[in-house]
Request: fold
Amino acid sequence: MSASASDARVVDIGMPRLSDSMEEATILTWLKRPGDAVTRGEPLVEVETDKATMVYEAETAGVLEEIVVDDGSTADLGAVIARIRVSGAAAAPPAPPAPAPTVEPAATKAPGVEVEFRDAIRQALDEELARDERVFLFGEDVALAGGVFAVTPGLHEKHGPDRVFDTPISELAMTGAAYGAAITGRRPVLEIMFGDFLALSMDTLINQASKYWFLTGGKQGVPLVIRSVVGGGGRFGAIHSQMPVSWLMGITGLKIVAPATPADAKGLLKAAIRDENPVVFLEHKRLYSLKGEVGGDEVVPIGRARIAREGSRITLVTAMKSVHDCLEAADLLAADGIDAEVVDLRTLRPLDRATVLASLARTNRMIVVEEGFPVCSIASEIIAIAMEDGFDDLDAPVLRVTNADVPMPYAANLEKAALVKVEDVIAAARIVAGRGG
Reply:
């Protein structure tokens, strides 16, 4: 650590110990750049260890002064990977590398308390594990490692190895185990690390779990939840960045939940765990550090959209990370006199047709924004709903804004080009708003 003339201190950030056997790790993505302000506890960097990919949160507040180890580079445990400038003489040097601490699950917060998206999910899991002894959580690295995106630390220690435990890497086996547990009286919550690997769970989901209610004449459901990380961003490449919604949308009997805010992440996950039939719960990787107000024990009903922003000129229908892109676009469009309403779907199956159509009736124009492929997508379904049940309210064609129809590139510039962007939403909105008078 060194001091500057202005009595600020530059603190060295060493490669943290993120697993018991770790000797070195690779920097995947810096979440902050030099010159950015950093607060204590804020996600700083994504690191790939010998066991998993994890998010390291800053232990010191200040300004990121320098990145020493760049994206894609490997460093030994304890080696300096960055430096943070801390104002004031009271700043203390960082502690030497030590075994990973046990993090207690976040306690239930009072209404209106701001927490991160990942903490809201942890709260929901913690509370449901405590509320119902039939609930258990399992998956790859969810227990001892606390999850590759630091969502589940402390739950194993608090609830014990029979309620929160790690498994080998076999998505098909894990889903089969969840199905078996669900039809014999338990309420499993399974984490499939990335949504890309839901393909390995398809037989159990499609041919077993989603049909059991029907095959038993409504006498028994399959109360299982599969949590999975989805979406692009962060240079995870083509096989860790997909949005598998189109794979699942056509499956009758399967619910798909896709929250965009910490409050909805908590409330919808609680609803999913209490549901009597299978739910796929999608968590966008670029939302984990998003902060928002979260209340107490509220349960958000599955199947109800929300109006994230009221407007009168055009409706933007979207979900997950794209909700925030649409809100940003709506603020910029307002400067052009285009008052945009933003509908956050929250649940993708069942879709809240009534809220979508009511918004279309108010604005008479619509764009569907989806981080996913354009073919057989959420956007396709919403457009069909608008044409079938809202045609008389349309003053202009409905447009869709999606990712490029390519596998997600690894290179940062190509990944950015492939993903939905705010400027894409704005361009489409200007086209639609200029049509039909």
About this structure: The two ends are 64 Å apart (CA to CA). The chain is about 25% helix and 25% strand.
